[in-house]
Write a structure and sequence with these properties.
Pfam families: PNPOx_N. This is Pyridoxamine 5'-phosphate oxidase N-terminal domain-containing protein. By secondary structure, the protein is an alpha+beta fold. It has a single domain (about 5-80, about 105-170, about 185-215), classed as Electron Transport, Fmn-binding Protein, Chain A (Pnp Oxidase, Chain A). About 20% of the residues lie in helices and about 25% in strands. The chain contains 6 helices and 8 strands, in the order H-E-E-E-E-H-E-H-H-E-H-H-E-E. Strands 1, 2, 3, 4, 5, 6, 7 and 8 form an 8-stranded antiparallel β-sheet that branches.
């Protein structure tokens, strides 16, 4: 056990753009791709937490209301799938035009997963719905918006979705909203902030997890019980 997260987990949480949130209710699993904010501590919690927002009527919200145990998957892998070897009756996947000899494209395609990938980490924790209209909710929302607001142009460069439109792209769930409408879940940048009574702020208090690298090596970690305390209204228990 440790009083703090492993350094590589902290680095991964600070650098990754999205995470996968796994919830479950009545033995039916559900996975969502989420914007998030990681904080090592807050005025309301002495332990590391992750902030997310979700519509009150969503599947994951319903799951969280019946089962607060969640798993998160975060990784800092930036590599793409390498081509498979040609086999009889099967074309290589994915197929790409051959780059010119000595070109930058050839160099980039020559970079394998080992040189670009580092770790993935599975995080287990307990989710908590922040009371609607509370000062705590306001504080968490402000942190979440600040962490997911990007300067002009940088979002397109670093976006992990086609078209540089963030989580769902221009054709996703956020598309089709009229000007002035509240942004919908999945939009990137400041639009990850969902305004309105139907929006819930969720925090996940981290308990333990597992680190895996591209070689398949794994290492388990766990926070000590004392690290998982809370600070209601900014004061210790």
């Amino acid at each position: 056990m440790s009083n703090s997260l492993p350094e590589e987990v902290v680095t991964c949480l600070q650098n990754a753009r999205f995470l996968h949130l796994a919830t479950c209710s009545e033995n039916i699993p559900h996975v969502s791709l989420m914007n998030y904010t990681y904080l090592p501590n807050t005025p309301y919690s002495s332990s590391p937490i992750i902030i997310m927002t979700t519509p009150a009527s969503s599947r994951k919200t319903q799951n969280l209301e019946s089962n607060s145990l969640v798993s998160l998957l975060v990784h800092d892998w930036i590599s793409h799938r390498p081509p498979t070897l040609s086999q009889p009756g099967r074309s290589p996947s994915p197929t790409r035009p051959a780059p010119r000899s000595g070109s930058l494209a050839e160099l980039l395609l020559g970079m394998n997963t080992a040189s670009l990938s580092r770790i993935s980490t599975t995080i287990n924790g307990v989710a908590q719905m922040v009371p609607s209209g509370s000062e705590e909710e306001t504080w968490y929302k402000a942190q979440h918006v600040a962490n997911n607001t990007f300067s002009d142009g940088t979002e397109d460069i670093y976006s992990t979705s086609p078209g540089g439109q963030g989580l769902w792209g221009s054709g996703g769930l956020g598309n089709g909203a009229a000007s002035g409408d509240a942004p919908r879940e999945g939009n990137a940048g400041a639009q990850c902030y969902l305004d309105g009574e139907e929006v819930r702020v969720v925090i996940v208090k981290i308990r333990d997890g597992r680190i895996a690298d591209w070689k398949g090596q794994v290492r388990d970690w766990r926070l000590s019980e004392g690290t998982q305390g809370t600070l209601p209204n900014g004061t210790a228990d």
